[in-house]
Amino acid sequence: MDLKKIEKVLAKEPPFRLKQVKKALFQDLIENWNKATILPQNLRQKLSENCPISESKPEKILTSKNNQTIKVVFGLKDGLKIESVLTKHKDDRRTVCVSSQVGCAIGCRFCATGQQGFKRDLTSSEIIEQTLFFARLLKKEKEKVTNVVFMGMGEPFMNYDNVLEAIKILNDKEGFNLGARRISISTVGIIEGIKKISQEKLQVNLAISLHSPNNKLRSRLMPINRKYSIEKILAAVDDYIKKTKRRVMFEYLMIDGVNDSEKEAEKLSKILRKPLYFVNLISFNPIGHSQFKPSAGWKIKKFKDILEKSGITVTQRYRFGREILAACGQLTGRIKNGVNPV
Ligand code: SF4
């Protein structure tokens, strides 16, 4: 679904046609142009011939036992594959986790996508199509997508322009009409991206994948830290907060014996004790033959207590979709008998 192509086809039509098309695509969630009965037959025909609604095909749909998580493997038109995940929270949130790239060049040691290498950036249409697929699925249950997070495959700020274009389409009142505050971007700390997004007139949420309070360990877990050190990232985040007055989330994967000691919690407390910072602790999700293991529950609790005692707000991400490999860091687009081969 390429909006630019659609605009070209509609170039000679009166302006209200574009509004009708956007309503059909993003609110009525049509799957083929014949369903857009408000449009004249010849226009529907022209759109069908030139502007396919979905170029990404859902090839595999996996649902967790408790029905709370649905992972979809999409085949793209060049044969590559990506994954996206819908999480149905106990409250009314219905969150779609979208991919922004096929594979990822960042190579975080704990991440299945990172082990796969980088193939290419996704177009804004390919990003939007992931969301629309779940929106159609939820519509059948009389529900809606309430949140979109860029936490799937890829580093969103390495594909800044397409990610931003997708966000604008999702946020468009005549289109999908999802509030910017319901959209979150998670980055490893690409400084240029943090600077750019602070200048956009969009109130999207920013999350930083930190995972360590010191550079030595962080560089071991995330080699990108050699370029974007913790100090540089925090300076960029402070600047972002100054401009936007928005809170920033720091994501911290709890990996057994690696980054979950009391010493690390204390160091983290020191560097993150600032008014608009908050921490999200995430239990590590084992991937393939990974050397890493998740921290024990009691260790996570202790870590959390230390942060909270120092005045930091801490949230904890629950383990969604682990058995279908739909959890954080487990997306690879390759599934063999339900297992991501990493
Ligand atoms: S965690 Fe994110 S940035 Fe790091 S390798 Fe995985 S997809 Fe890329």
UniProtKB/TrEMBL annotation:
Annotated EC: 2.1.1.192
Family named by the database record: Belongs to the radical SAM superfamily. RlmN family.
Cofactor note: Binds 1 [4Fe-4S] cluster. The cluster is coordinated with 3 cysteines and an exchangeable S-adenosyl-L-methionine.
Name used for this protein in its record: Probable dual-specificity RNA methyltransferase RlmN
Key words of the record: 4Fe-4S, Cytoplasm, Disulfide bond, Iron, Iron-sulfur, Metal-binding, Methyltransferase, rRNA processing, S-adenosyl-L-methionine, Transferase, tRNA processing
Domain of life: Bacteria
Compartments reported by the entry: Cytoplasm
Pfam families the record matches: Radical_SAM (PF04055)
Organism: Candidatus Nealsonbacteria bacterium CG11_big_fil_rev_8_21_14_0_20_35_11
Function: Specifically methylates position 2 of adenine 2503 in 23S rRNA and position 2 of adenine 37 in tRNAs.
Record carries keyword Hydrolase: no
Gene3D superfamilies: 1.10.150.530, Aldolase class I (3.20.20.70)
UniProt feature coiled coil, ranges: none
Residues the record lists as binding [4Fe-4S] cluster: 104, 108, 111
Database matches in PROSITE patterns: RADICAL_SAM (PS51918)
GO cellular component: cytoplasm
Enzyme class per UniProt: transferase
